Amino acid sequence: MKKLGFLLFLALMLGIASGSALAQNVGDNSVYFVTYYSNNSTAVNVPDATVRFINDGTTVNDLWASFYVFDDSQELTECCSCDVSPDGLLSESVAFHLTASPLTGIKPTRGVIKVISSSTNASGPKYGSPSYTNTPQAGLRGWATHIQSIKNRFVPPTGGIGAAPYTQTETQFADANLSAGEKSMLENLCQFSILLSGHECPCTQEDYDF
Fold it and tell me: Which of 14, 81, 109, 208 is close enough to 122 for a disulfide, judged by CB 3.0 to 4.6 Å?
C-alpha cells in the first residue's frame, strides 16, 4: 500500500511539473514580421521567390496576413490582407502576386516585405473590410525564399537583377517591433495605394502551393 501511495504521489508531482512547464511555454507572441526580396523578375530564366505563412491554430480562428510591399527606396508598391485558416497554409509568389501590379507601374527588383498578423481583414471596403485597420493577433508564422545571383554579386547590372546562375535560400520572417506609429503609417499608405490603383495584391487560395 505504501508503494502504491508513493507511485500516486510521484505521478501527481510529475503532472504538476508538466502542467507548469506547459503554462510557462507560451510560445512566440509576435504579430509583426519583416523580410527582404531580391533579383525579382518575371523573366523565364530567373527563379521566383515565394512567401509562405501558416496559422498555428492557437486562436482557433481565421487570421489575416496583411502584406505591405516596399521597393528599396522606402516606397510602398502594393498591399493586401490575405485570409489564413487555422492550420492552413498561404503561399504568395513575389513576382506574380506581391509585386505584380505596383502603384508606380514599375516592378521593383528588390525591396522589403512587412506583414502584420491580424484577426481582422485590413484591405478596406472594396475587399470586404469596413476599414484598413489591423487588429494585431499572434498566430501566424512565415518563411520566404530569396533569389541569389552567384555572379556579379558586388556590381549588379542596371535594373538590379543579378546575372545567372541563381541559387535560392530560405529564411523565417524576422520578428519586428510594431509601434503605433508604424502600424498607422502602414495602414494609411495601404489605403492611399488601393484608392489610387483600384486594386490590392492578389491572395492565393489556401489549397494552392508552388
Answer: 81
The span from the CA of 65 to the CA of 184, in Å, is 16
Q: How many residues does the chain have?
A: 210
Instruction: Kindly list the domain boundaries of the chain, sorted by start residue.
Output: 26-197
CATH class, domain 26-197, is mainly beta
* Nearest C-alpha neighbor of 146 from the set 175, 189, 109: 109
Beta-carbon contacts of 155 under 8 Å, excluding residues fewer than 6 positions away, are none
Whole-number Å distance between alpha carbons of 39 and 148: 7
Distance CA 16, CA 106 (A): 59
pTM of the model: 0.84
Measure the CA–CA gap between 32 and 23, rounded to whole angstroms: 24
How far apart are alpha carbons 40 and 111 in whole angstroms? 9
